[in-house]
# Entry
Amino acid sequence: MAVSEFDLIRQYFANATGMRPDVLIGIGDDCALLRVPIGKSLAVSVDTLVEGRHFQPGADPTSLGHKALAVNLSDLAAMGAEPAWVTLALTLPKADTAWLRAFVDGFAALASEYGMQLVGGDTTRGPLSITVQVHGFVDPALALKRSNARAGDRLFLSGCVGDAGLALQRLRDDMPSSADDAYLARRLDRPTPRVALGQLLLGRANAAIDVSDGLIADLGHICSASGAGARVELERLPVSAPVGAECARGNWQHALAGGDDYELLFSVEESRLDAMQSACREAGQQIQEIGRLVDNSGIVLVYPDGRLSEEIPDGFDHFRT
# Structure
């Protein structure tokens, strides 16, 4: 018997996540009705993942469910927002119930971790694509806007950069297996959104952005919005052993322009530096200072041998890459 669109909604999505008291009406009506807390702004972000562009055909559906939500949660993290609600639009080649069950498992597990409720969406037939929209709350006076950075701010980065880019290159080049494959694949397929760090930075950092298109490209967005330049010390970049080996061979492409790492890049003024670092240590947040913002325009890279360069690698762009 053929499975209808509404069968799929009832079976896989209607009760996929927990319930929140601020959801007045969720799945099942023409619109969701949602209550925003007094004194908070609503932070909203949306991303689409397309088969063959963002993930390989035949990719593990559980990992896809995780990543589809994680990349949006990373945007909330960059604003310092608290996650609340999510909508999901799926375009499917066919009603593959085994695929859907696995996808929803990955999606719902991450939603549960952050107390989110699925409140609506759409299901249609066509080439596989996944669109997720997330909603969160943030104090508008403290939100980590890109335009809040100032010359003199120190630049910090969470986690490691370059892992996802290196994983993708190895996958595309069909390179021989190595001991790093499992670690790199997990970094590409199941990124960790830095939600807790984003909220910890409220009132402690000036600006933030998540590293999705490449470290230097995303730093450029902060510089452009804030009217500042930057100086980045490459020797201080936090990288894993496999990415560090590439850098040691002179290949900085993954660390500087790989993208898909979903780490937080943020700026902190001198007067708040000690308080921010102390709070991060107490919370077990891994951060690394990598440079500073400056009055001059442009981004200068300081290589480990002291060489200075203004040649900036391109980050990811859907219409140029």
